[in-house]
Design brief:
elongated; about 35% helix; two-stranded antiparallel ribbon; mainly alpha; about 220 residues
Length: about 220
């Protein structure tokens, strides 16, 4: 999971909601273009075009607007900007292996759900070079629950995280790397290029922080 910093909702969405009157109440199902397209564009931009859950690269054609608290459970939040995110996978093809928002679907448990808006969310997960994601603390039940609910250890995501990690941390680099080199790597992967961050950048950054801690304690 990756951390998302929310900005202000687009003015077009605000203005549309202000049209509410005694005969009409704005709802998410009635939200159409251009307001819906503008909303999605802003969600993608503030997430630097990466999925709010797995962190892989996404764009308008392969993503969907995600309600962190599902509409069924919290209809009062269906148009609340702080509850809206961009998650990977736009359609749900038959027999496909789902993950992230589409797998989560209408699941929500207040005591177990970890929001991408939580500034500590990234630190609650760690990664192996094999692409496996696990909890940073073995007793962190919510983190383990989110791994399962979001399918973050699906073969699809594991294989792509492994490729990203192996590309950044080959054997020779890990044998000779220094804390300064890891700091440079973290800074480089944390900088968006033309408004976009690399797929699984937060995975690489988390692994680099783990390597720094290992070197500092060696």
């Amino acid at each position: 999971m990756r951390h998302v910093r929310k900005g202000a909702e687009p003015s077009e969405l605000t203005d549309w909601k202000l049209l509410e009157n005694e005969d009409w109440t704005p709802t998410y199902p009635t939200l159409q273009n251009p307001q819906k397209a503008i909303l999605k564009s802003q969600l993608l931009a503030e997430q630097f075009f990466t999925c709010c859950y797995c962190g892989r690269s996404i764009n308008s054609s392969d993503s969907h607007i995600e309600h962190f608290r599902p509409q069924e459970a919290a209809p009062e939040l269906q148009l609340k900007y702080s509850n809206l995110l961009a998650s990977c996978i736009r359609e749900t093809p038959k027999n496909s292996q789902l993950h992230c928002g589409h797998l989560k679907d209408s699941w929500f448990e207040e005591n177990l759900a970890i929001s991408p808006l939580d500034e500590t969310c990234e630190s609650r997960f760690s990664y192996l070079l094999t692409g496996v994601i696990h909890t940073s603390q073995t007793e962190d039940v919510p983190a383990q629950t989110m791994i399962e609910v979001l399918g973050l250890n699906s073969e699809y995501l594991k294989n792509r995280r492994e490729a990203a990690l192996q590309g950044a941390f080959d054997a020779s680099f890990l044998e000779t790397t220094t804390i300064n080199e890891l700091d440079s790597l973290i800074e480089g992967f944390s900088q968006p290029i033309e408004g976009k961050l690399q797929s699984f950048y937060h995975v690489i950054v988390r692994f680099a922080h783990w390597q720094k801690a290992f070197l500092a304690n060696a």
